[in-house]
């Protein structure tokens, strides 16, 4: 009897050691995925740092110049609609640096931000490679387009934030004054923070359908719930649009709100598709 207990204890210990080894193997695999992602971001950041002069003048400072694409399109739209008020031909912005190492840290910080932004798709790819082996064949097929759709939505969001929200916000905030006795002189770090925050925040917000997909697969969110709470979602979207675009212009707020409404409706469709797939899978397995 004691021999059986001893053998059972040895087997249990072996299973425990095997599980522990498996856990540490997963940690090791995750570590290498993260290392590769970090290396990719470092390479992109170094590339941005090397070509910084062009990137700074063209991309970072782009929204502060009247020749920026968005302002030119607004002028063209104003001419088409005979609304000269649409045209923005002057940006009242003066940037200063107040720290000894300010411009050097500016180059490092902005290069890193751009490196993280451009390296985000590869990071998603590495995360997918880590998660993929743990999924069943059906789950792999269902989530096969995860990296593509997540990357596409992020890029669209970043471009929307950079070409729509950022220039409108900069134009408004740079010219806003409480009193004529106060002169607007903006620190370069404040400018960079505004551009990067508005751009990246929009890219993250555009990942809403991906979040809905994950929550729907977990059974936390349903298409029915999203339809029933649509009226509340509209209020939240309007509040978000008002915060993201600190301008009194209703036109700008509407332009920002429309894509958010569209994303919410896409989220409903995504949730409905996930529910249909889950129901079909349950029927195939004989659970329904």
From TrEMBL:
Keyword Transmembrane: yes
Record keywords, A-Z: Cell membrane, Membrane, Protein transport, Translocation, Transmembrane, Transmembrane helix, Transport
One example GO MF annotation: proton motive force dependent protein transmembrane transporter activity
Residue ranges the record marks as coiled coil: none
Membrane topology of this protein: Multi-pass membrane protein
InterPro entries in the record: TatC
PANTHER family cross-referenced by the UniProt entry: SEC-INDEPENDENT PROTEIN TRANSLOCASE PROTEIN TATC, SEC-INDEPENDENT PROTEIN TRANSLOCASE PROTEIN TATC, CHLOROPLASTIC-RELATED
Protein name: Sec-independent protein translocase protein TatC
Name of encoding gene: tatC
């Amino acid at each position: 009897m004691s021999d059986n207990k001893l053998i059972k204890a040895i087997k249990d210990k072996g299973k425990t050691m095997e599980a522990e080894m498996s856990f540490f193997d997963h940690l090791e695999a995750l570590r290498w995925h993260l290392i590769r992602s970090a290396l990719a971001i470092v390479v992109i950041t170094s590339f941005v740092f090397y070509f910084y002069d062009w990137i700074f003048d063209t991309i970072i400072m782009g929204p502060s110049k009247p020749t920026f694409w968005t302002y030119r399109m607004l002028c063209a739209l104003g001419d088409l609609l005979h609304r000269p008020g649409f045209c923005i031909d002057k940006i009242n912005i003066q940037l200063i640096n107040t720290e000894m190492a300010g411009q050097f840290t500016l180059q490092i910080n902005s290069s890193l931000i751009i490196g993280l932004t451009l390296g985000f798709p590869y990071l998603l790819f590495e995360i997918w490679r880590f998660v993929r082996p743990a999924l069943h064949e059906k789950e792999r097929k269902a989530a096969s387009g995860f990296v593509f759709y997540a990357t596409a939505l992020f890029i669209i969001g970043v471009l929307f934030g950079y070409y729509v929200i950022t220039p409108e916000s900069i134009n408004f905030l740079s010219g806003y004054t409480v009193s004529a006795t106060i002169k607007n002189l903006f620190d370069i770090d404040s400018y960079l923070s505004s551009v990067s925050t508005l751009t990246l925040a929009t890219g993250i917000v555009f990942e809403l359908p991906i979040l809905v997909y994950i929550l729907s697969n977990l059974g936390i969110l349903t298409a029915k719930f999203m339809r029933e709470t649509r009226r509340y979602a509209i209020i939240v979207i309007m509040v978000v649009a008002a915060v993201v675009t600190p301008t009194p212009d209703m036109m700008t707020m509407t332009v920002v709100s429309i894509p958010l409404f569209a994303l919410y409706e896409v989220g409903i469709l995504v949730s409905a598709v996930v529910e249909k797939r889950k129901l079909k899978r349950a029927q195939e397995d004989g659970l329904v």
